[in-house]
Amino acid sequence: MEKSDCKGASQLNIESINEMTNHLVKIVETAPMWLSALVLFFATWIEYVFPPFPGDTILVAGGFFAARGAVSLYVTFIVLVLGSVSGCMLAWWIGHAALRFPQSYKLLLKLIKPDNLVRLENLYKRYGILILVLNRFLPGVRGVFMIAAGLAKIPLRLVVIWGTISAIFWNSLLIMVGYFFSDNLASLLELVSKYTKAVLILLGTLFLVWLLVRLFKKRNF
Fold first, then answer.
1. How does pLDDT run along the chain (221 residues), one tens digit per residue?
2. Which residue among 15, 29, 143, 173 sits deepest, i.e. has the most Cβ atoms within 10 Å of its Cβ?
3. How far apart are the C-alpha atoms of 95 and 74, rounded to whole Å?
4. Domain for residue 2, yes or no?
């Protein structure tokens, strides 16, 4: 087997993600409305537990095909918001369940020190609402924030309320982009991809700076 074949079989690379997006877009374009709506729902739901899934590109594609009449704009908006909120709830439950079951809690303590769990809970006490509202605007790490909300014992009702508000604003923005600028879907999807990369680079940089500051403080003491 060639080296390139092994690499393709062993990891989900950018090309395979783009291919997945193209397949989903074709389904939305050609399938009956009920199936298109189901695909749109699934796309925004699964990205909370499988971050490489191209949820935002599907949002733009939903607006694009709503403009073409392949699926109702109202149906698109409703199923995408429902998918986002149910994804939030699933990710929250994963974090919440890790605290409730003895075996998963023991595994969790091997990955996260008890002191860090306390810090996480304090972080959500101070900035919880802001984090929940911003979750839809941060592709690639949405699921992490919602799992953290479960670990921090944030009430599910707050996750649903603020997660819904976040989904309404972000999903509306991307759907409208796809709807009103539907001349070139490929360019729109490329723009969303660049935004995702920029957010991940920014968050990675901020984390690195935070880590360096902590190491510097420890050395001084």
1. 444 444 443 344 445 555 666 676 677 767 777 887 888 888 888 888 776 676 777 788 788 878 877 778 888 899 999 999 999 999 899 888 888 877 777 766 666 667 767 777 888 888 888 889 888 888 777 888 888 888 888 999 999 999 999 999 988 988 888 888 867 667 777 777 777 777 767 767 776 776 666 666 666 55
2. 143
3. 32
4. no
d(Cα 98, Cα 102) in Å, to the nearest integer? 8
Any domain includes 184: yes
CA distances from 121 to 143, 144, 161, 164, 182 (A): 17, 14, 19, 22, 43
Domain total for the chain? 1
Domain assignment of residue 201, given as a range: 11-220
Of the CA atoms within 13 Å of residue 108, those in its CB half-sphere come to 21
Task: Count CB neighbours of 179 within 10 A.
Answer: 20
61 domain residue, yes or no: yes
Write the DSSP symbol of residue 139.
T
User: If DSSP states are collapsed to H, E and C, what string results for 32-84?
Assistant: CHHHHHHHHHHHHHHCCCCCCCCHHHHHHHHHHHHHCCCCCHHHHHHHHHHHH
